[in-house]
Amino acid sequence: MSPETGWRRRLEIALGSGPVPADAGRGAGEGVRTRDHLANTRTFLSWMRLALTLVAVGYAVDKLGVVTARVQDRPPSGEEGDRTTALALVLSGGVLANLSFARFLLQRRVIEGPALRSRALLDVTLMGIAGVIGVIVLLFLLRTG
């Protein structure tokens, strides 16, 4: 097998577009692999919903600062931290989306592998990011409320 063929085969397996290897899965039939892939897809979509929500909340925080400035008859400025909070939320949404995609691909490879291996580091990282963002939103709400 040439290096290019090996690389191409690994990419096809990771993306789920190639033929299923004979030693794929952990046994117990094709239904288990299918169930695992569907669960992986649902988990990926839920992380993407969170990422998109963070981007939308960041946008709303930014626009809330502009609207509040207009109501109070003052020029909009980013000195109050609204802009910083909004940018942190949007940036964290983008980072979360990319990490969740990496987790999705990694988990596909684990599902296609011969043995179940736990890969918790990326999941813990994603949860840490979500927790930090929760604290940022809480601090923003306490400051503006």
Give a description of the structure:
The protein starts with a helix and ends with a helix. The chain contains four helices and no strands. Helices cover 77% and strands 0% of the residues. Helix 2 packs antiparallel against helix 3 (82-112) and helix 3 (82-112) packs antiparallel against helix 4. The chain has one domain (3-144). It is elongated. The protein is mainly α and 145 residues long. The mean pLDDT is 78.
Condensed summary:
The chain is mostly helical and 145 residues long. The chain has helices at 3-15, 30-71, 82-112, 120-144. Helix 2 packs antiparallel against helix 3 (82-112) and helix 3 packs antiparallel against helix 4 (120-144).
The residue ranges in which pLDDT falls below 50 over 5 or more consecutive positions are: none
In whole angstroms, the N-to-C terminal distance is: 64 Å
Percent of residues in beta strands? under 5%
State the major sheet: none
Name its key features.
145 residues; mainly alpha; 4 helices
Secondary structure blueprint with pairings:
Elements: H1 3-15, H2 30-71, H3 82-112, H4 120-144
Helix pairs in contact: 2-3, 3-4
